[in-house]
Every structure is written in C-alpha cells, then in structure tokens.
Amino acid sequence: MDNKSINVILAVVIAMTVVTASIPTPVFSQVVNEQGKTLRIGYFPNINHAQAVIGLGRGDFQKALGDNVEVTTLIFNAGPAAIEALFANQIDVAYIGPNPAINGYVQSNGEALRIISGAASGGAVLVVRNDSGINSPQD
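The chain above was modelled as a monomer; its predicted structure follows.
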C-alpha cells in the first residue's frame, strides 16, 4: 500500500471519528450477535473509557438490551489486544482509542472493522467487527 492510499484511509477514518464524536454514547437497543443471546463488550477500565465503565457498572447496557441478551465483558489494557480480540471473534464490540482503530482498519484493508460511534472527544470510539451486523449505535 503506497503512502497516498494510507493518507486517504487515515483521512477518511479521522473524518469519520470527528463526525461520530458528536453522537451520544451508544444505546444498544437491538444489538445481538449471531446467537442472539450474548453481547461481548471489550473495554479499558480507565477514565478515557468512562462510558463503558459507567454504563456497565450501572447496568445501562443490560437495561437497554433487555433480559433476552446477556452482556459479558472483557477488560483490556492496550488497544492492539482489543483489536486482535475483535479479529479473533472473541468480542463483538470494543471501546478503543483512535490509533488502534486506525491500525486495525489498515491491517484489514478496511474489511474487518467499522467505527459506529464516537464515545468521547479525543478518547475512545466504538468499533465492531464488519460481519457483526451492527451498523450504527441504534442497531
């Protein structure tokens, strides 16, 4: 991949991140994985990912999803590990920073990941596997 292609990809991803940063924290009203029973959320237990920490702690995700969907979590301490977990189908969604999101997008030639929402200005974005069926926070 030449520098021009990488620059175009980075510009698109950065533009998407800026645009989606104004979208409120996602509400997973209808998110389900292929089994329809479990949503596996990856996140970092720190202030940059407060939306996940607070939402999980207060039960907001479970309330939004209802009793038919089990919410499970996996804690990460680095973005590359969360990207690898998405690639390996170990989690369905992850709150990650912009650099790991860009790296994962480039590594997969834009095929494996989709940024569906900004979660914190300059902090984290919500990323899903491309084959998850999740296309927006409303999904």
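The chain has a mean pLDDT of 76.
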